Amino acid sequence: MSEDLERRKFLSRLWKGGIAVMAGAAAWTSWDFLQPVAGQAGGPVTTVAPDVIPTDSVLEVDPMRGYLTEVNGEVVPLYWKCPHLGCKVPWCESSGQFECPCHGSVFNRIGEYRRGPAPRGMDKYEFEIIDGVVVPDTSKIIRGAPAGTPETIDEPPKGP
Questions:
Q1: Cα–Cα distance measured from residue 62 to residue 90, given in angstroms and rounded to the nearest whole number
Q2: Residue ranges of the alpha helices (H) in the chain?
Q3: At a CB cut-off of 8 Å and minimum separation 6, what does 120 contact?
Q4: C-alpha torsion sign, points 94, 99, 105, 108
Q5: Which of 12, 96, 116, 126 has the fewest CB atoms within 10 Å, counting from its CB?
Q6: What pLDDT, in 10s, does the model give residues 42-88?
């Protein structure tokens, strides 16, 4: 009979220990999840001088999580997140447009909607030019124009 009690105590302690280990792992994971990510977008980002920004392509800027381009002398800082489901939208040099690899949305060089399931064009950042450098504020996002809005630049796709 006493052997039976020892086994019950052992199993009880084993279960309690297992639950404690799982609770500790859950707390550890939750703590890591709630910490800010290093380099996360959310404020002013110093990039490049306006004369470095291409007028027929885009410049990818990792710290701002976006792209810079220039149209008619005006700098356009784009957020690289697709407004459909949040995929990173890469620039395609061969076609001269943004093409989302997840669901096929397509945007022109300044992020205006062309086709696909996205509900609007790519979002843009507010920016300033400080000491001759473009400084987008990644905490201030300007939503893209809704799908169906006419494009403001006449740049047909360059190729496939």
A1: 12
A2: 2-34
A3: 83, 113, 143, 144, 145, 146, 147
A4: negative
A5: 12
A6: 789 989 999 999 988 999 999 999 999 999 889 999 999 999 988 99
